[in-house]
Amino acid sequence: GPFAGFNTSLGLAASVTGASVAYIADSGNHVLRKIDGTTVTTIAGTPGSPQALHTPSGVAVSSDGASIYVASTGSHRVMRLYGSLFETLCGSGAPGHADGVGNAASLTSPRGLAIWRAPEILFVGQSRTVRAVFAPDSHVRTHAGQSGLASTAVVDGGYGTNVVNPTGGLVVVQATGEVYFTDGGTAVRVVGGVSRVVTTIAGSNVTGFADGPARLARFNEADGVALSACDTELYVADARNHRVRRLNLRSLVVDSI
């Protein structure tokens, strides 16, 4: 209720069971919180200590509601809460970009999370790449982008394209597997579900504010994203413009709401 306190709340995910439950990454307190109606409880991590969970950000809930995934950004891991078991899904604890299984894979400051269908694939936005994690066996592979690139240009194309900084929000279209994400705070991009081709659909690498045709639109620290129920509109938290922007995925027009 009103007496609960948070410290830099970042990621949020709603229950998939229809209950009035939400899960929040309380980043500054290094914990994962649960809001059930008006009651707030800590369900993972230790308040004030980064040992179990370090500056968490993205949160995602499995399709059956049994597992909650959280990006432990500061410890370069993705964690899974299943009942009372809190475990590392993937990540060695050291920054890196190696593909592999479980803690043999390495991540760099993972942040945005999104789940696609069952058996579940978890998409993870991190520095320079979007990674795909096959949840049943914790196998990690690079879905788009390339590590080690210094350029800040927004470049479209296939696998290995320079994905600048996909560390904001990302969402996945369940019917197609397309992954939408904010890139570098100034653009909205999509990775094709089958082709894995990266395409910029709104903005560029230019900071500013402008509504209108999507490629002429401008953002300033675009971060969180959410899809409408029918997957035709994308909502973008444009942090430094202090606005919520709406991108119509059919007409490719951006407005502010």
UniProtKB/TrEMBL annotation:
<dbReference type="Pfam" id="PF01436">
    <property type="entry name" value="NHL"/>
</dbReference>
<dbReference type="InterPro" id="IPR011042">
    <property type="entry name" value="6-blade_b-propeller_TolB-like"/>
</dbReference>
<dbReference type="InterPro" id="IPR001258">
    <property type="entry name" value="NHL_repeat"/>
</dbReference>
<protein>
    <recommendedName>
        <fullName>SMP-30/Gluconolactonase/LRE-like region domain-containing protein</fullName>
    </recommendedName>
</protein>
<keyword id="KW-0677">Repeat</keyword>
